[in-house]
TrEMBL record:
<protein>
    <submittedName>
        <fullName>Dienelactone hydrolase</fullName>
    </submittedName>
</protein>
<keyword id="KW-0378">Hydrolase</keyword>
<dbReference type="Pfam" id="PF01738">
    <property type="entry name" value="DLH"/>
</dbReference>
<dbReference type="InterPro" id="IPR050261">
    <property type="entry name" value="FrsA_esterase"/>
</dbReference>
<dbReference type="InterPro" id="IPR002925">
    <property type="entry name" value="Dienelactn_hydro"/>
</dbReference>
<dbReference type="GO" id="GO:0016787">
    <property type="term" value="F:hydrolase activity"/>
</dbReference>
<feature type="domain" description="Dienelactone hydrolase">
    <location>
        <begin position="33"/>
        <end position="260"/>
    </location>
</feature>
<dbReference type="InterPro" id="IPR029058">
    <property type="entry name" value="AB_hydrolase_fold"/>
</dbReference>
């Protein structure tokens, strides 16, 4: 059997004078349009955090046009941006805007190797907060998002912040959540989602996410739920990456099986 060769190319999308999206496309060589997977890292992560390079390699090897990227808050921090700019870039509203820009670039065939991307078959994979954002975007754009995979996420953003103790960033993120309660009501969105969704949840994650996962099951029991017994919020992986874990392998296999059924 011929060895599979992944082609990889980086890209940048300028959002404003102060905000930038930096990402990478990975896909197999050869002709033909493949299903698209847009991968969103967690709030404290970044596109090359720990397991993401290996995960995106395996997605590409499995036949997906795979997009990873740093949310604009990451590049704003790296550029030494103004504190207020970084704070605003860290909101869920900006995270959704970032995801939408990537989605629109897929639809308009503006990303590298776009001839290999089937823009009518798009899945979002989001870890932690990006999982919640992926569910919101899927609810808002059902014609453009055909499937969602959530890794250890699904909670609605919290509008609570101790005003006297919170940093500007924390306060800005909390105010954004408070001002967008209806839009960010993940549970309500999830209950009415028609697209197939896979929720992968580690059984040793924090209690809030475990409780949310139970609520999501009750809201839409026809969706697919996979529990990874013993797995924490990052599937037992740490950064710098030292290799996969059984938890991560199980999460990835569940994801690939789900996407294969969808597409």
């Amino acid at each position: 059997m011929a060895e599979k060769t992944i082609v990889s190319e980086v890209f940048e999308i300028r959002l404003s004078e102060q905000l930038l999206l930096r990402g990478k496309v990975k896909t197999l060589e050869g002709e033909g349009a493949r299903p698209v997977v847009i991968v969103g890292h967690g709030y404290r992560g970044f596109q090359d955090w720990a397991f993401w390079p290996e995960v995106t390699d395996q997605l590409a090897e499995s036949g997906f046009y795979t997009i990873s990227f740093d949310f604009s808050r990451i590049t704003a921090k790296e550029a030494g941006g103004d504190e207020a700019v970084i704070a605003k870039a860290s909101t869920v509203s900006q995270e959704l805007a970032d995801l939408d820009v990537i989605l629109q670039h897929v639809k308009q065939k503006l990303l590298p190797h776009s001839e290999r991307a089937d823009s009518k078959r798009v899945a979002l994979i989001g870890h932690s907060r990006a999982g919640s954002s992926s569910l919101i975007l899927a609810a808002e754009q059902p014609a453009d998002v055909q499937a969602v995979v959530v890794w250890n996420g699904g909670a609605a953003p919290s509008g609570a912040a101790a005003e006297q103790q919170a940093t500007l960033l924390q306060q800005t993120v909390a105010e954004d959540a408070e001002a967008n309660k209806a839009r960010f009501n993940v549970l309500e969105h999830f209950g009415s989602l028609k697209q197939p969704v896979l929720l992968v949840q580690g059984s040793s994650d924090n209690e809030r996410l475990l409780a949310v996962n139970k609520q999501l099951k009750e809201a839409n029991p026809e969706q697919t739920f996979v529990s990874i017994e013993g797995a924490d919020h990052v599937f037992g992986v740490r950064h710098p990456y030292e290799g996969t874990t059984l938890y991560l392998s199980e999460a990835l296999q569940a994801t690939l099986s789900f996407l294969d059924k969808v597409y």
